[in-house]
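#random but structural
TW: two for the price of one
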Amino acid sequence: MQDLNQPTPEALEEGRLLFAQACTFMLGVVNLRGLPPMDQPEIVFAGRSNVGKSSLVNALTGRNTLARTSNTPGRTQEINFFDLAGRLRLVDVPGYGFAQAPKAKVEAWTDLVFAYLRGRASLRLACLLIDARHGLKTVDDGAMEQLGRAAVPFMVVLTKADLVRPLELERIVGAVRGGLRNRIGALAEPVLTSSRKGQGIAELRAILATYAAAAERGVSP
């Protein structure tokens, strides 16, 4: 079985080629009725507010302004779909947990995100983003539980890894591995990334390209 976390040179090149192609904003939706048809494989980027989802989408696609970023938790308030070369949809969803927005609005978009995760047959993989400075939080357990119930495979992507000292990062990675143990649908090994410095971006592109290729063949990666 291929180790997705240690992509071959060929897989890295496939990832580079895929993400070098045109990636365009499709639409943003605020309720389930607005979702596009399930005619392309989708990869969703989920995580706590201000964890760096939009920054990661921009880093993967090499476009600084494709997804709107902000230092204010809760800036993304709808499910945003991006079309990557007609082969893959990247989905940027509102963050869960704390956000600088009214509580009722936060609860509404959190419910929307989890409803999307539960009911999307075209969803091939969830990238669950975790701030490497803080590791897994209780609120992340709820997200992993939802993904497990929906039978959605997911991988933890540790963001902002460049901001953590090596020994502390090693401790956090170990704790994340432990938190993923026995989780339904979890890929056992987290991916370390830094959108600012490019760490792990080529490897993550390769992983996502593997899912795109597998969807085209109608098989699992």
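TW: number two ↓
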Amino acid sequence: MDAALKSTASAQPDRAQFDVTDATVSAIHAALRSGTLTVQQLVHGYVDRISALDRDGPRINSILALNPHALTEAALADAWLAAKPTYPLPPLFGVPVLVKDNIECAGMEATAGSVCLKGNLATDDAFVVRRLREAGAIVLAKTNLHELASGGETVSSIQGQTLNPYDLTRTPGGSSGGTAAGIAANFGLLGVGTDGINSIRSPASANNLVGLRPSMGLISRAGLIPCGLTQDTIGPITRTVADAAVMLDVMAGHDSADPITSQGASHLPTSYTQALDADGLNGARIGVLRSFFGSADVHAPVNDVMRQALAVIEAQGAALIDIDDPIDPDVLIAEVLAHHYEMQRDLDAYLARCPSTVAVRSMADIIAHGNAHPSVAGTLKTAVALAHDEAAYRERLQRQEALRQRLLGLMAAHRLDALVYPHQRRLVARIGEPQSERNGVLASATGFPAIVIPAGFSSPDDDAPLGVPVGLELFGRPFSEPMLLRFAYAAEQALQARRPPRATVAA
């Protein structure tokens, strides 16, 4: 544990212990209002868990760096509350947040998990981090990720491998697996991830969480270390749909530093929380995208969970329509994604602005240094090889537009409100194996929104005492987040599939 945090935390007055396990924003605010909890005690509670379970015990290895100012900020929050006990609490007042380490937080390094970016001390907050702080949140820690957000297993040259708290032999998905493992294990209340292809929803699926990839243009990417800005976005990773809605209220909005957010400015509701309706599935028309399900024996554990989850959703009044359109997610990955064509350009532009304490100024420098994690070496070489193939890049962008029109046409023809499918056709990969058969490409290649919620677990075994989590993904038209949140909330309330991992139940 950071010495300054430990010293400050140990000075806190003795009070009844607040159980942070699967706490929510509303529960924390109620405890703060009642005087049974202080923000300092809350931060202390999470830091204790990180010390006992992330850095010791099962060693989940999700937290890359603690914010040394977290308890000072908590003390200021407690002082504010003591001085203004009747004032309305800001929406995220006192809430400890875990932030993926490819997003800038003032006063902390932003490394994207790469030793090459050590020394990249942020002087300003990313737009979303500034919004979170203005809403009262406390950045508790930066989290591990798959290096440069360029893989699905969450392993980096700085931190090594993050473990899945539900099955310590498996990865937590990626690339935002450090944030997801930390939220699943209750090392923080809310999480911030990024998503270029699968990177919010994959770890949400693998860690029994909610993960929202927003419509392109809804949330600013300013302050993000990019992989390819046609597909890169930022979004919430939480334990409940309600908390994801609260985060989206705070994070969404126009930012002149990211001009694409002008597209989302006119689509903001009064509050995304207004969409939370336990009866929200009644009357919905949802297409079951059958080509995104596997048919081999290896797919049976996921298919079994999805079959049961879809039956519950149908019982809530939703009409489920089988869609047999042969959209092949593997073909989309191979032929439609554009990030490899943009990665060198966008990453080089970011690195050129880094402080002199950073040893690299380009992707070529990263390759020359030779100390990037081996799992990203192939991605870097591919990106260099494709960086100047303008004809192929334009063709990818045209295919993305064709896919948008195909999906809008399909949904119109069947009068669908949303599509549904498993985020991953097989269980999340074991450590040392590559991630395979993920379905996040549909949203990343189109820029349309998608949300993953817990669908259930595979059968328990010795490695996974609860089973391995399976995530259900709902996909919608651009800026249909209120509808997706309504469906997701109603499904979440009916399924009741969230369980804390046994490996980290107690500190």
